[in-house]
Design brief:
By secondary structure, this protein is α+β, with helices and mostly antiparallel strands. The chain folds into two domains: 10-181, Phosphorylase Kinase, domain 1; 189-289, Orthogonal Bundle (Transferase(Phosphotransferase), domain 1), CATH 1.10.510. The protein is built from seven helices and twelve strands. Helix 3 packs across helix 4 and helix 5 packs parallel to helix 7. The protein starts with 19 loop residues before the first helix and ends with a helix. Bound molecules: adenosine-5'-triphosphate and magnesium ion (MG). Adenosine-5'-triphosphate binds at residues 70-71, 73-76, 78, 100, 102, 167, 179-183, 188, 191, 229-230, 241-242. It is an enzyme of class 2 (transferase). Residues 29-52 are annotated as: Disordered. Residues 64-291 form the Protein kinase domain.
């Protein structure tokens, strides 16, 4: 079986690859709205960075179950997925987890208008793909949605490795990015835009966001679409999401403009909450740490 070659852990051996006598005990099969865990079929480069969190479910006996839509967005939809080993105690780490699956749509309804400025300086390698994406053919849209999923997954991996507060990226498969679900149970954490906080809490939230922006800038990066809608607040901690357009401040000629816009978006919201802050000052501080 081809996917066995990508396994990097003996625990990954799928039950459906078990020897014949063992198969007699294997009665669980995915039902409606379910599939075998897609983890075993991904290659190492399609998996999130080490160290892997203890809650990750890597067993190939696991089944993915669709729990519903978290939110439909401009470019894709976010679904809630349960990944669990049937009949294993769910409270033991590695047996059960709820994940967010962001699936890029790429139909005419999806909004890739922003792609041109973000991809400047990035470069698509295959000219056939470049032309197809530019013309917006159905093949071009299919290429684009895989590219955006890959771009978001890679950005999540890079930022996780830098220690920035983003959901842990579990894996990418074609147009689907599976990542840590930020929330409690099946309820997603609120976006910053929905949060009402005391002045002291606001100051703390603002400092966390500034810290996030500093880590990125010090590594030559900006979020590129930062706003109170792309920041989740979970138990007092800010987690940044929606990262396919992460901008390289060195190679992208529009990089500083996008960083400036991020500063304005963040400071405008905090100013409306009556927290004193200055977008120009923040921008200046961040430009000073870009290497
Ligand atoms: N990892 C996650 N954990 C919990 N909720 C999430 C997660 N990722 C996304 N969401 C929810 O799904 C929404 C849409 O996600 P995201 O912003 O990444 O997609 P989008 O296509 O850009 O959507 P939009 O057009 O609303 O910005 C978020 O606002 C958030 O409510
Ligand atoms: Mg968003």
């Amino acid at each position: 079986m081809t996917f066995l070659s990508s396994l990097d852990d003996p625990a990954d051996v799928p039950p459906h690859a078990a020897s014949a006598p063992e198969l007699a005990f294997q009665t669980v099969e995915p039902g409606d709205g379910q599939r075998w865990s897609t983890w075993p079929a991904t290659t190492p480069s399609e998996r999130g960075p080490m160290p892997r969190p203890a809650w990750l479910v890597t067993s190939a006996a696991a089944i993915d179950t669709e729990l519903g839509v978290v939110k439909t967005g401009k470019e894709g939809d976010v679904f809630l997925i349960e990944r669990a080993v049937p009949d294993a105690p769910p409270d033991v780490a590695g047996n059960h987890v709820v994940l967010a699956a962001k699936r890029y749509r790429g139909s005419e309804h999806s909004d890739f208008h922003r792609s041109a400025i973000y991809t400047e300086g990035r470069g698509l390698r295959r000219t056939r793909d470049v032309r197809a994406v530019a013309r917006g053919t159905s093949f071009g849209r299919a290429v684009a949605r895989v590219q955006w999923a890959t771009a978001e997954f890679e950005a999540l991996c890079r930022l996780t490795e830098l220690g920035a507060a983003v959901p842990y990226p579990v894996q990418v498969s074609e147009t689907e990015v599976l990542m840590e679900f930020i929330g409690d149970g099946r309820t997603a954490a609120p976006r910053l835009a929905q949060v009402r906080a005391t002045p002291a809490e606001l100051r703390d939230l603002f400092h966390q966001i500034v810290e996030f922006m500093h880590v990125l800038a010090a590594n030559g990066l900006a979020h590129g679409d930062l706003s109170p809608y792309n920041l989740l607040v979970h138990r007092g901690r800010v987690v940044a999401i929606d990262l396919p357009q992460v901008v390289d401040l060195v190679s992208n000629p529009q990089g500083l403009d996008l960083l400036h816009r991020d500063c304005v978006n963040v400071c405008d919201w905090f100013t409306r909450q009556r927290l004193e802050c200055d977008a120009e000052q923040l921008f200046g501080e961040l430009v000073a740490v870009i290497w």
